[in-house]
Structure formats: structure tokens, C-alpha cells
Task: inverse folding
């Protein structure tokens, strides 16, 4: 299960970066080889070329663009990483979609003032698309089945602390899984380094 999450996260990062690189590469190619045909291209393409100039020749705005983009990607990485482990995530996943829509609306308004902000529209659309993909996957592939580990914490020094933490998480999440006709079973395991590991496993109701 953990390997599946890591593989999915890596694919997600690759896809995200590829989308940005392909867009920049396309506009760079178009700008260099078709600059004489400016009168023949659409208004949208002209704005994209203006964005590329801003992206390359205005350092501050370039930094803001990259930081904003990777901030969006990091949010999605966090979302993917916790799809299975943080059991409350499914309940609030749709909020990510709403946030994307709000950002998109703001950037659309700003783009009317300065074409630079149109680049952020591209980033928000990518964000919205990836959010929707995650939302869809969480409803299908990431449904909980008997035996899934939904919470795990390592490196606990004593058993008493482990018991307290286990009871805390079990009480917090029990109602959520009761709606799904599942129960939580807690385990406290002694590791080879003499520390304790706790885990919550879902099981079908008898």
C-alpha cells in the first residue's frame, strides 16, 4: 500500500512538471521560429508570447511564478500522500476543488489588468484538473477494504504513550468508519530498536 502511494506520487510529480515544461517549450519554439508571423496568429497566442517574455526577462515575476507553481504542486503531493493514511481527508477533499475555483476566479480578474496573470490561470487550471483526478481516484481506487492500515505512527518510546495515542486516534476516527460498516482495530507493536509502533486497521463488522 505504501509503495503504491509513493509510485502514484512520483507519477503525479512527473505529470505536473511535464505539463509546465511542455507549455514553456512550445511557446519558446513558437516565439523563436514564428516571430515574423505575428499578424497571422490569434490574440490568445500573442498573449502567450508576451507571457513568455515576462517569464524570461522579469526575474522577480519569474520567481513568484515558480514558487506559486511548486506551492500548488506541494499541496497536491500532500493530498496524495495522505489519501490512505489520514482518514479524515476524504471528507474534506472537495474543499480543494472549491479553493481551486476561487483562485481561478481571482486570476481571471487580474488577467484583465495584466497579461502576466494569465500564466497563473494555466497553473490554476492544472491544479483544478489534478484535484478532480485525485477526487475521482479517492472515490474508486482508494476505498477502504478489510485489513487496510489507515493510521500508523513509529518511534514511540514507551508503551503507555503508545496506548494513549492509539486510544486518541481510535476514538477520533471510529464514527467515520462506522458509517462505512467498518470497525477499527488497534495494534501496538514492539520494533527491533525497542521503540513502539501503533497502527489502526479496518475490519468488516461481524
Result:
Amino acid at each position: 500500500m505504501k509503495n503504491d502511494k509513493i509510485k502514484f506520487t512520483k507519477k503525479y510529480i512527473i505529470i505536473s512538471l511535464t505539463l509546465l515544461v511542455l507549455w514553456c517549450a512550445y511557446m519558446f519554439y513558437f516565439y523563436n521560429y514564428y516571430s515574423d508571423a505575428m499578424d497571422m496568429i490569434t490574440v490568445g497566442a500573442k498573449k502567450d508570447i508576451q507571457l513568455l517574455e515576462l517569464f524570461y526577462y522579469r526575474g522577480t515575476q519569474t520567481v513568484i511564478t515558480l514558487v506559486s507553481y511548486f506551492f500548488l504542486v506541494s499541496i497536491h503531493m500532500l493530498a496524495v500522500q495522505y489519501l490512505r493514511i489520514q482518514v479524515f481527508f476524504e471528507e474534506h477533499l472537495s474543499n480543494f476543488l472549491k479553493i481551486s475555483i476561487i483562485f481561478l476566479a481571482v486570476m481571471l480578474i487580474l488577467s484583465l489588468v495584466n497579461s502576466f496573470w494569465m500564466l497563473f490561470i494555466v497553473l490554476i487550471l492544472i491544479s483544478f484538473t489534478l484535484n478532480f483526478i485525485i477526487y475521482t481516484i479517492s472515490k474508486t481506487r482508494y476505498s477502504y477494504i478489510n485489513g487496510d492500515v489507515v493510521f500508523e505512527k513509529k518511534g514511540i518510546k514507551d508503551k503507555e504513550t503508545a496506548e494513549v495515542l492509539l486510544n486518541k486516534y481510535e476514538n477520533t476516527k471510529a464514527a467515520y468508519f462506522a458509517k462505512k460498516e467498518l470497525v477499527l482495530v488497534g495494534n501496538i507493536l514492539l520494533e527491533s530498536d525497542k521503540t513502539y509502533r501503533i497502527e489502526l486497521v479496518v475490519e468488516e463488522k461481524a
Summary: The chain is about 65% helix and 15% strand. The radius of gyration is 23 Å.
